[in-house]
Design goal:
Elements (H helix, E strand, L loop, with lengths): L1 E2 L2 E2 H12 L10 H20 L2 H7 L1 E17 L6 E16 L2 E16 L18 E13 L2 E8 L20 E12 L2 E12 L13 E15 L2 E10 L13 E15 L2 E14 L8 E13 L2 E10 L35 E15 L2 E14 L6 E14 L2 E12 L6 E11 L1
Length: 438
């Protein structure tokens, strides 16, 4: 059986090579990054159990389990046949807590029972890309010390900052994104929160078979800093994201950048059934470390949503600016959960040389319960995409969503249609998904 245009034997051989440290890149091979996370996890187990019988009595173990099955269909102009992917992902592990210390170990596996698609790693189009290659890997392995307002987490961990526009978990994709990192969070000062991370490795969505421009892990000295302050208008955050994609295969180091900016996010309730939420953000980006480009690009976001009981109206304008129109001198966000932004057709995961401006509006309606289903949500959004320079109209996109909860299960259907004008090609995507979590 061919799955994602790769045979099962190919996957097994490549996986064995990855797990024995054959692949890697940059200054820190993937095997070393993997080994560091394993050592942290083993250290967590040792520390949690090091206190003898008294400590063992305080040890609390909890299972960690979530699973997802998804069908994804992609119809992209110029590529035939269409992509049809049925993928299944399972994450499982255990968490342990004893006083101020806790540890977490979680593995994940992704299979593709129906693999009529290009998974991004082997072969090439004609089938359109569905970025869910088969995979088996250590997803998280972390140790945390938490006492009062201080939390210190070390190891392989999931990091989601603010709205995930700059740093996120890419949780829509089956394999997700995690960080080999040390993270400090402190909230001991009135209205002030500090969030600092040093990450030496980024585990990508491409899994253990990743290579070339789609590596399984990207090494580098990443520094991620947030300083937030609560005000009557909302939370004001100053941030600095120094992204070091220190791999020649990743666009020749051209994804390394330093971004500095600020963000305001707040809400105001007019009555019990009416609430306005809003956010605004600005950042400026330049090259960092070994990036050979020299550029300056700006980021802007203004977004608002009005909740009127079950009805929700939203609108916003987001700009990822351009410098001089050279590839990868526009504002880039390689660590973001990009699926949440600029439409679900994923046409702007890499910002075009001339930048992108996204003017969008959304309409949603929710029902507390419909028969056995709870939290039933219907949503529609429309995007108009233009360039930041040269006044090009890239295209328009329509997104539709319906979701509902049935006990521990969440059922979701999505649809995206991108109509191209001056960028990319016409594309339709459809998803049917079921999630389960303990």
């Amino acid at each position: 059986m061919r799955t994602g245009y790769r045979t099962q034997a190919q996957h097994r051989r490549t996986a064995r090579g990855r797990l024995h440290g054959v692949s890697g890149g940059g200054r820190r091979p993937a095997s070393r990054i993997h080994g560091a996370a394993v050592k942290v996890a083993l250290g967590a187990a040792t520390m949690l159990g090091a206190g003898g019988p008294a400590a063992a009595q305080d040890l609390v173990l909890k299972p960690v389990l979530d699973a997802r099955v998804r069908y994804e269909h992609v119809d992209q102009a110029g590529l035939h046949p269409d992509a049809n992917a049925v993928t299944a992902r399972v994450r499982g592990g255990v968490s342990a807590e004893a006083g101020t210390l806790s540890g977490l170990m979680e593995a994940q596996g992704t299979l593709a029972p129906v693999g009529q698609y290009y998974d991004g790693l082997e072969g090439s189009a004609p089938p359109p890309l569905v970025a869910d290659p088969q995979n088996i890997a250590l997803y998280r392995a972390q140790l945390q010390y938490k006492s009062g307002p201080l939390a210190l987490t070390a190891g392989r961990q999931r990091i989601q900052l603010d709205d995930e526009r700059f740093v996120g978990a890419v949780d829509f994709r089956q394999n997700g994104q995690t960080f080999d990192a040390v993270r400090l969070q402190y909230s001991g000062m009135a209205k002030v929160k500090v969030d600092l991370t040093y990450a030496w490795g980024v585990r990508t969505i491409w899994g253990i078979d990743g290579g070339g421009a789609r590596q399984q892990a990207a090494s580098g000295d990443n520094l991620l800093g947030n300083l937030s302050y609560a005000t009557p208008l909302g939370t004001v955050t100053a941030f600095a994201y120094l992204v070091d994609q220190d791999e020649a295969a990743l666009q020749g180091y051209r994804l390394s950048s330093q971004s500095y900016g600020g963000r305001l996010a707040g809400a105001h309730a007019f009555s019990e059934g009416a609430k306005l939420s809003y956010q605004a953000s600005f950042a400026r980006q330049a090259a960092y470390r070994r990036n050979p480009n020299r550029y300056r690009a700006n980021y802007y976001l203004v977004d608002a949503a009005l909740q009127l009981r079950a009805l929700k109206l939203g609108a916003g304008y987001e700009v990822l600016g351009a410098d001089r129109g050279v590839a990868l001198t526009s504002f880039q966000t390689p660590l973001a959960t990009a699926f949440k932004f600029q439409g679900w057709a994923d046409k702007f995961l890499t910002t075009p040389p001339n930048g992108v401006r996204d003017l969008y509006a959304s309409l949603g309606y929710s029902f507390p319960q419909v028969g056995p289903a709870k939290a039933v949500t219907l949503q529609a959004a429309y995007h108009r995409f233009d360039s930041d320079r040269l006044s090009q109209h890239y295209g328009n996109e329509l997104n539709l969503l319906a979701s509902a909860k049935l006990g521990r299960y969440t059922l979701t259907t999505r649809f995206a249609e991108y109509r191209a004008e001056r960028f990319a090609t016409d594309t339709r995507k459809a998803w049917v998904q079921m999630d389960f979590a303990l």
